[in-house]
Amino acid sequence: MLTPEIDAFIVRMPKVELHLHLEGSMSSQTLLELAERNNIELPAHNVAGVEQLLRYRHFSEFLTVYMALVRAVVHGEDFARLAYELGTDLAAQHVRYAEVMLSPMQHILRDVDIIEAVAGAAEGFARAHTETGIRVKLALDYGRQYGPDRAWKVLEQASAAMHHGVIAWSIGGNEIGHPPEPFAEVFAEARRIGLHLMAHAGEVVGPESVWGAVDALQVERVGHGIRSIDDPHLLHYLREKQTVIDVCPSSNLYTGAATSWQAHPLRQLYDYGLNVTVNSDDPTFFYTTITEEYRRIVMHFGFTVDELCHLTRNAVYGSFLPPYEKHTLWHEMEREIKRLRQELGV
Ligand code: ADE
Ligand code: ZN
Questions:
Q1: Model confidence at 173: pLDDT above 90
Q2: Spatial separation of the C-alpha atoms in residues 235 and 269, rounded to whole Å
Q3: Which residue in 201, 188, 211, 197 sits closest to 166, CA to CA?
Q4: Is the CB of 23 under 6 A from ligand 1?
Q5: Domains in the chain and their CATH numbers?
Q6: Does any ligand 1 atom lie closer than 6 A to the CB of residue 24?
Q7: Which residues does the annotation mark as catalytic?
Q8: Pocket test for ligand 1, best of 66, 69, 107, 253 (most atoms within 8 A of CB)
Q9: Would you say residue 323 has pLDDT above 90?
Q10: Contact 319, 16 (CB under 8 A)
Q11: Helix (H) or strand (E) segment spanning residue 100
């Protein structure tokens, strides 16, 4: 039950978020201001209009709205603004460290310079760091529907952007009809140049997509992964390997990937012993935040304070920080958590 004490704990607990899209985090107000300044005609002209658009019946409709609205973001300074606003917002939620994805193809297709975009985002996060202490690293999340051939050029750009804090390579976008396997060579090269690997998989396609991600792409983390529940063999494998599964519950409800809270498999995945983390994915698009996700899993799945701490620890150790930094970060966070639990009696 979400008591006032547990609610206070959730609000104040130190957090780490691993599955979060920069473009999916911009506020409706910022989106409208950027569209006006950049002379971009959007399908909405005020906050109510944007919110009207953020009602989708299924995943492909979500992607269409997402791509229509993202057109407002054009210049390096726009990305800097999004990053600064996201960084300070996360810091206000006591997020100590986050890994944030940027979707390169959505920008490249509009002739936006992706290096300028990444440099802008890095600058915005650096400003948020100076003001609040939050640390943020970046991942490029390639839209799988654009195919493996075009991914090579983007990977080259990811390589050139590593000094801006790009630490990971991922695939996202439309999972249906775009399995992981054709990306195997691109992922192998990404690993070779020193990037960490993730993939959205098992979000709207079944276990075969997760198998492809872990087998063919050798990813360290799976985004969503909820359909793993349909394959006992896969569950066993993921538990053995302790593959990190970044679950985004509200996202799954809003895109229709899960039909209801009761039908969402987070509780089963966690109880089975998978290495699960909880994340917000696209806060603006799914009316959520990392804080809100923690609240919702307490309300809908009865997660306890001990379990929330365990999920947070999973996020620290599932991150792409170097091992010694993970230990230091968890050490600090664990101390804070203990103090907070004592103070609140939870
Ligand atoms: N890009 C932004 N959000 C996404 C999601 N939930 N799945 C795939 N691609 C995405
Ligand atoms: Zn995502």
A1: yes
A2: 8
A3: 197
A4: no
A5: 4-29+76-344 (3.20.20.140)
A6: yes
A7: 203
A8: 66
A9: yes
A10: yes
A11: strand 95-102
Cα–Cα distance between 104 and 139 in angstroms, integer? 10
Return the ligand 1 atom nearest residue 248 CA.
Answer: 6
* 294 Cβ contact partners less than 8 Å away, ≥ 6 residues apart: 10, 13, 15, 278, 303, 308, 311
Residue appearing with tokens 């999920």 = 311
> Which tokens sit at 26?
């911009």
Residue 64 is inside which H or E element, if any?
helix 59-69
Close Cβ partners of 165 (under 8 Å, ≥ 6 residues apart): 122, 125, 136, 137, 138
Length of the chain: 346
Note residues around ion ligand 2 (Cβ under 5 angstroms): 281
- Cross-strand pairs, 278: 247
To test the ligand 1 pocket, which listed residue (22, 67, 141) has its Cβ within 8 A of the most ligand atoms? 141
Q: What is the number of H-type helices and E-type strands within the chain?
A: 16, 8
Q: How would DSSP label each residue in 167-226?
A: EEEEEES--TT--SGGGHHHHHHHHHTT-EEEEEESSSS-HHHHHHHHHTS--SEEEE-G
Residue pair 45/32 in contact by the 8 Å Cβ criterion: yes
Per-residue pLDDT for 58 more than 90? no
pTM of model > 0.90:
yes
Is 143 near ligand 1, meaning CB less than 6 Å away?
no
Tokens of 121: 């985002």
Check whether 263 has a pLDDT greater than 90.
yes
Q: From the CB of 173, is ligand 1 less than 6 Å away?
A: yes
Q: Is 14 in the pocket of ligand 1 (CB under 6 A)?
A: no
CA of 248 to the centre of ligand 2 (A): 8
**pLDDT tens-digit map of 28-49:** 999 999 999 999 999 999 999 9
Given this model, what pLDDT does residue 56 score? Answer: 85
Is the CB of residue 283 below 6 angstroms from any atom belonging to ligand 1? no
How far away, in angstroms, is 346 Cα from ligand 2 center?
Answer: 32
